[in-house]
Input
Amino acid sequence: MARCVEFNEVEKIEKAMNVFWEKGYNATSIQDLVDAMQINRSSLYNTIGDKHQLFMKCIGNYFDNAMMEVKEKVSKYSSAKEALINLITDKAGWIVSCDKGCLGMKTIFEIAPDDCQVRNQMSKNNEVYIDFLKSIVQKAMDAGEMDDSESAEIMAEYIVNSFTGWKQAYILHQNPIKIKKMSEVLIKNIFK
Amino acid sequence: MARCVEFNEVEKIEKAMNVFWEKGYNATSIQDLVDAMQINRSSLYNTIGDKHQLFMKCIGNYFDNAMMEVKEKVSKYSSAKEALINLITDKAGWIVSCDKGCLGMKTIFEIAPDDCQVRNQMSKNNEVYIDFLKSIVQKAMDAGEMDDSESAEIMAEYIVNSFTGWKQAYILHQNPIKIKKMSEVLIKNIFK
DNA sequence: TTGATTCTGAAATAAACGTTTCAGAATCAA
DNA sequence: TTGATTCTGAAACGTTTATTTCAGAATCAA
Output
């Protein structure tokens, strides 16, 4: 038998993720990555793969974490309406909480248009997220807490769309109050 | 006296803009640019400047064109409500009309967070656009064509936010019908 | 035509890029 | 301790990067 891997891959992936998060795919060099991951170049290539493979693992990890977190939070509320309001308010808070961009959105606009492997992964992730949101929206509609003149799916997409817009606005103007206001308008709009 | 510049700068800037549009800032090399612009390396550096300066000129040109176009279109309608509906419908059509991303949005997510020169320019552009939209929204409100329980500015931001979300959705799922539907929901929401 | 000036093309620069290689240290069952 | 195996660090690979340099062609007033 021989030596076995001495580092925790998930841990290293998370460190790499933070670099991609901050700088984006193209602006991140292998040097940046090995520095942040505290891993050897060879170990990186041997155990994880090249830059693109590492990136795929990062966005996978990013989504899994985000999805787990949101599911956990939602499970705390018995009312679908309350769960939605909290989900939206949380997102608005999250957007203004970090000045770096959002890895997901950055990836969609920077990489996805020209990289179908990334696009497929992001598209799948997005669908999973929207399906989840849709199920809560449906519950709210069934409970009569929400206007159901539009389908649950459309409403779910509508909500997710807003998040991207908020991040854009926050990157440009860095005004937390405006983002909070936007989230309130959204909540008002979908529940009237 | 000596020789004078033999190429039309604006024309060259436009060609460069298309490259940045397609590939984004970081993925575009000077080689890509001189190839597309059909200009010499030295001429580029002597008359326009380095990559970053060229990029700044490109996003300036991009915004000026977009702004001119939208103003021209809006001027055709005497009703503010009609103008807004057309502006929104147009944007939805534009989003699904080209498969490459949107230079503006790409720049905001890829470059703006880490490049304050770019961020300031984009932020200024965005403000100008929103101010313009706000003035139309205000007209629609004054004419009683639009619900005025929210300020014109908030409504203008709300509309612009949606555009970014649509582009994201289209990059991921390439479903024109969904984008059209989203624009209809927006129109329904802001005019009820 | 002259002469000062400016544009142009190609080559050169030095640094950074992603990736590979490989000798040697580390590990662990036998 | 041996021997097979695997991880590690550093160096090297060949490209590609953005930018500069410079000799010569092109221009135009005088």
